[in-house]
Amino acid sequence: MQLDLNLLTVLDALLEEESVGGAAQRLRLSAPAVSRSLGRLRKLTGDDILVRTGRTMTPTPYALAVREQVADLLRQTQQVLAPARRLDLDHLERVFTIQCHDALATALAPRLLADLTAQAPGVRLRLLAEASVDTDELRHGRVDLEIGATVPALPEIRHEVVDHDRLVVLMRRGHPLAAHLDLPGYAAQAHVLVSRRGRLTDPVDALLEPHGLSRHILASVGTTATAAQVVARSDALLTGPEVTCRPIIEAFGLVTVAPPIPLPAAPIICAWHQRFDTDPAHSWLRALVRSAFAAVLSERSGLVF
Q1: Is the domain of 161 the same as that of 273?
Q2: Which of 81, 178, 180, 196 is 20 to 30 A distant from 36 in Cα terms?
Q3: Cα 31 to the chain's mean position, in Å?
Q4: Are residues 239 and 255 in the same domain?
């Protein structure tokens, strides 16, 4: 059976007005058009719906029985086809899942959770670590937002470059290269890389090639915290984003110096599935993350390049 939902609108108007003319005026249609729709409704339901009594029309028992149901169905249809875009944060109850590496989570979480608690006390967050391989978590809806440094390849994954964080060289206090870090000394020193895939090179190595230099990579580790632990107890160096790594820098008592070669700032990219483009709650989450990053990145250190 193929149903014309426009008939539901006409039926609601007829039951409210108890008149073809009144329904036509309410719907801004001609009386003949409403009369034709009434004929279709009678054929479809097998009931007269409205019958003439003198100069007026009276609803049938069937019409009286379904009046409230028709009104409710029409309201539900309108809510489905024209959803409200107003977001009530005071009563929003939802769990969002954000996936990012540990340094981003450490830098972002305090400000993000404070803002979230103040604006939407019914919302909860899951902050998950990055997987060691690419996944379809966004596509399958298991993750709402991924934060990283890579532009997603899938066309249905939307993304936004939130900001950039300049790269610095992290080392322990009292490191022999802290006072003067030149390019040959930087390349020759032991380095620790942070890579979820265990890679032993990163874009910095490509920038050293034109100078005829290559770094001595001591190890590749999965988290920034692990790398910082190694750097804090050795002469190894770690090259990473300054503000994002600041909580870890402070926790492990590290110092930062400018790299001896110009390095492009690391992008901070938020990615989500296109199904959430027009979802008010998800849009609010993205704005909240954007605002939290802006606040965190505005607190840059006094390091001068």
Answers
A1: yes
A2: 81
A3: 50
A4: yes
